[in-house]
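User: Structure with zinc ion, tokens only please.
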Amino acid sequence: MKISEMNLCIKATLAYAYSPRENTGSGGKHHIQAQELVQTGRFTRQQGDTLCRKAQRFWGLQTCLDQNQNVTCPRCLEIAEKLRTAQ
Ligand SMILES: [Zn+2]
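Assistant:
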């Protein structure tokens, strides 16, 4: 699913990163990167973090030039479900 189809209640962009070491072999993924502070309950992300983890825990995280691609990070998708405007 693309970010533009998600109706997120936050400003977010698509970002690509290579997997951290524990996921060697799984290749890079497209993540959802928050463009503003996100706070719902105990969940907090700073601007520039992805939904699945803090930006500094990635190697080579960068905003995608083509925003019209699917998010492929399962954890980001799962968290995005909770950040829909409909809820
Ligand atoms: Zn992610």
